Amino acid sequence: MSAVARPAPVRALGRPVGALAGGWLALVILAAVCAPLLTPYAYDVQSLREAYQPASRTHWLGTDEFGRDLLTRLIYGARTSLSVSGIAIFLSVVSGMTLGAAAAWFGGWFDRVVTVAVDLTWSFPEILIALILVAIIGPGTTGTMVAISVAYLAQFTRLTRAQILTLKGETFIEAARSLGASDGHILFRHLLPNALAPVLVSAMLATGDAIILEATLGFFGLGAQPPVPSWGGMMSAGSALVFKAPWIIVFPGLTVAVTVVAINLFGDALIAELDIRNRLQGRP
Amino acid sequence: MSEPLIRIQGLSRRFDTGGGFLKAPRSMMAVRDVSLDIARGEVLGVVGESGCGKSTLARLVLRLIEPTSGRVRFDGTDLTALKPAALRAARRRMAMVFQDPYSSLDPRYTLAEVLAEPFVVQGQAVTQDRLAAMLAAVGLPPAMLGSHPHQLSGGQRQRVGIARALALSPAFVVLDEPTASLDVSIQAQIIDLLSGLRDRMGLTYLFISHDLGLVRYFCDRIVVMYLGAVVEVLDRADAAPRHPYTRALIDSGFAPDPSRRRAIAPLAGEIPSPFSLPPGCAFAGRCPRASDLCRRDIPALSAGEDHPVACFHPL
Predict the structure, then answer these.
(1) How do residues B253-285 score in pLDDT, each as one tens digit?
(2) What is the DSSP letter of B92?
(3) Which residues in chain A are closer than 8 Å to B91, comparing Cβ atoms?
(4) Which of A18, B145, B185, B228 reaches 20 to 30 Å from A12, CA-CA?
(5) Domains of chain B (ranges plus CATH)?
């Protein structure tokens, strides 16, 4: 009984790995939200006399080539990176679920068109799709967001479609129909709620990938434009100075790595709690 | 005799499958020209091997799948002609209990939500007390209302399925092998529950099963189906079979009394593929009494000496 009462994310936090990963993610999100309260520095004020300083008491992680505090830029960079990848995945989940549910529900030629389109995009690496889209839309946060959400659209469409197709054959759907349930009732009260858990977990894991994709685009100079900091953009600036001031590239790199690993570990804990491993394969 | 509650006339359903690149579509008649009446308060049993179309017949009667031809009249109303809104209203008076108690309840729902669903989809209000009374009527404690289906045993789930079917006080309930997935001891409890509810609520049952022994115990009349068609209608549960297939079905049951143990004569031959039925009687290939006539013409269901049978050479 009590196992049902507490929601799965809370139960995931009860596992040691889940607690560690969840703690890091909470820390990063909290820092991003409260950025101006946490640091006395501005992320965009240059002070060339203080450039290339290693870690010290005044600048905990050192300064970059323009003398800006690295920790400050890292915290503000979390705002960019997390919001861009988070919003992109949210858009991707909403449109992917709508598309996948519609394809599975209506079937026929509509389903075939969606399936072919999704399989086509599925066969390209996400980075390629994202690069092409950013080239079309133009660099910047909006372009990156759209590019990432389209790049992951296929994944959520496929997963939702497979879930709905499996659930459609369940007897409780026929039972609801025999009681006189409308299509809307069956779709919104039975099919989508049952399809939601695997899609949300897969969205969580995709957010980790999206942070890397956002950093990659930022590294290429296609993401947030200077002086707005993003983790990828900071690594790009630091790449020319690897030997002179290695901390400029190392700390953003470490932050990306630890954050993505934390998301994956927390996702794993969530999967274990929800007991849905076999449903994530995306097969009907 | 008053008008029957259910009047099935010439009901057929064809399924088309396959048909793709360089592949011709195939079709089969799952239910072929079935006509039956079900009287008020009657328990009508339908037996047959798996794949004989009995489950399809059950769904056709409730119009959960559309018939290819034929009609079903429910208390004088032609169900097959109803528009969606009218059909939804008609569903208040008919219900179904499903074979698999594990997949017939939404795993995310609590029992309270399961039992409230009939009222929700019909736009009716329901109180917590009413839900508790529904559980009590099928012999489950009201404290279970907050439980999820996975916390229940198979027999308990089937009781919930029955409570849900009876929520709107229907007149007619289709029971699609309601005990086939349960242990034998639980089967008896469920059958006992169903017959008690029938007496109390004046229900009419269409009871689908492959277990002839159970059907003979529980039903007033028995319809025997073979490959989509009705081959015999036994007017009484203990009536002597006249169709060779019914005879074979009865003979293949195991006698529980060891002193009455006898040799079982299994039917020779295989069921023909429903996609390519032979001309003539579908049972002819396995029938010991088959003649050339049986292999050429299809016997019609005709009132024989005491009850309808579709056979040229009845027993």
Answers:
(1) 766 666 766 666 667 777 788 887 878 888 888
(2) G
(3) 178-180
(4) B145
(5) 6-17+27-309 (3.40.50.300)
